[in-house]
Amino acid sequence: MAAVRSTGLFKRFDATVALDGVEVSVEPGEVRGLLGPNGAGKTTLLRILFGLVRPDAGTVELLGRPLEQLGTSALHGVGGFVEDPCFYPYLSGRANLRLLARLDGGTVTARQIDAALARVDLADRSEDRLSGYSTGMRQRLGVAAALLRSPRLLLLDEPTSGLDPAGTRAVATLVRELAEDGVAILLSSHQIGELERVCTTYTFLREGSVAWDGTAAELESQAPASAYALITSDDDRALELAAAHAGVRAQRSPRGGLSLAAQPRSLDALVLALGDARVVIRRLELLVSPLESMFFALNAGDSLDELEPDEFVDRVLMSA
Amino acid sequence: MTTLAPPAQAPLAAPVPREDGFRNAYATELQKLLAQLTTRLLALLVLLAPFAFTAILKVQSGTPSDALFGAWVHSSGFAVSLVILGFAGSWGFPIIAGVLAGDLFSSEDRYGTWKMILTRSCSREDVFAGKLLAVGTLVVALSMLLAAASLLAGLVIVGAHPLVDLSGQLTSTGRMLALTVVSWIYCLLPVLAYASLAVLFSVATRNGILGVLGPLLVALVTQLLDLIGKGVIVHTLLIGSGFDGWHGLFVAHPFFGPLLVSALVCLLWIAACLSASWRILRRRDFLAGAAHRSPNWTMPLRVVLATTAIIAVLAVCSGLGPAGVTGYRVAASIGPTFNNVTLLQQALIGRHAPPSAKLAVLPNCNRRGAADIGPGDWLCQLYVYLPQPKAVDFQQTNVEYDVSVQYNGCWKASSPPSFIGGQTMQNAAGKSVTNPLFVVYGCFNIF
Predict the structure, then answer these.
(1) Pick from A103, A107, A174: which is nearest to B28 by CB?
(2) Largest CB tally within 10 Å, which of A92, A301, B238, B400?
């Protein structure tokens, strides 16, 4: 049974179609990344899944329960937040959690609240009023509020927004551990690197529709190209060799060295050729990952098949 | 944040929680309201203001005689409480309702917290009902706190003395206490109607300023409309008129028509405002939070325009229906009341009339500069035939009173001291007491 199953979701705001036939499914233990440019419909989708926005058409099942019929009862076992988590500024962090726990039925104990605060490193500041919290602290409190529900399904919108690198890594670790424990997670983020660390599947939204949907392996094989920074002992020679290899485009980088756009296999061939030509590779760095290039590609064209390869690669190189 | 660990997991097919969402929503809303500084400051104000008001009155010789019972604030603590009740009906109750209820829903928009509370285990119905009950609880609690504080202030600082009622008769302490308490309790209905209106403003505009100021604006408009128009229909349909219902309890022959009608009107306002609020909230999509939304004044502007239009219509229609204030009713009310206060004054100076003694009072009342109908300034000539102890049976005395009559049938009559003496007089024991003839209050039924 899928933890989330949405079919044919359609939502219009005045003249704007926010979602058009969106179908998303997340299985237990799966971490699905939800990507798309601004206005693609990611937040609207999450708001519909949370019951905050009612779709004009389509259905949502959460943990096997139909949202439309059951309302908030269908949200039992569902945690998370949409956009930035918000709290009452005149209450302390602990009081905010206590209040939310009360809305959940009041079965959460003080010890569980302490544990949730400790998990997000807010135990020391739990008695402070929210008005004194930084953005990152509010974000962490949002994670704690989600954990209080012992969720079987987590819906997270930009969960690391405002967090420092250590906090970001900790959230990624938490997400992985929850997924290993069977929790289904739908994660919307603009931080592509963050998604790559934890996601096993991806859904790309564009203009309210699903533009691409698949596993991480499928994405890697279908992504149009990745971009790399290459610094060698002889950049002129390396540029000549790159030009001679099909599937590799190269140009001088304004930051020094070369910028390459290539599929992994084409890059492998180039690296071997550089070795044969006794050109030493001093640095080879991934600048634009397959996920990022897929993101650019899906934003650029109607579908992957309709992309103009050279034009796209130039765009990837420019972004690098 | 380096010690994160996954929580213990519940079974996948987690059971739906027990259906106590409303109770939980009520408890959390009450907790939120009590934690807010505005609520605490308001409670403090409600508690202290009556004592401050009474203490100021105590050290002043003047009285707020324009308010019903105002001339008696130095004589009876009940008068203090009833004067405060009158002021509260004009401003205090709309402020309590606005401050508590006006930001009840819009604050969730301002803080962006709708998405936090509506994604827990409480339904929209539970949250809506919980909020209403929580704010209702506090509105009632603060109103009763004001009642208790005003009574306590009056009784402690001035004293639990009998008070002259709106028929000019001295009413015992016990009866006056009962009537005063009943009056305060009755006023809960219009306060709750104002709170419902504040809720509607809060839900419809999502703007806390309009929600808080809305009831005050309506109270102001109500008072302005009370100054115009002779018909009873528009006045009766206003929430503020509900605060007049208790006046009929303080006359010799109580009348309950205004009380029952205004109670019904308040219930209609409550039902209309709350059902409209629920319709708006039930269908609402909760989109971007406050942090992501630019200020939107379209809805508040619409509300202001709609309110202006409604005020204009009400002003135009204020003459609709039969006139509540007529020359006959004014005269019929002031005659017996003057009779009673005159006998009371005589008793105070030691001239006790036999039981059921009556003066022959023939009032003739005319409205100044206008037809003898409607609220405003009236002039009443009272032809009093005083019984004489010796040769002549009766001696006619004329007394002229300026009578200010309100739309609700309550009036205040005053006359120059040359006619009826000063504000205070010496009683038989040589003590300075309030002259019952100096300012006379009364009320008649406008239906």
Answers:
(1) A103
(2) B238
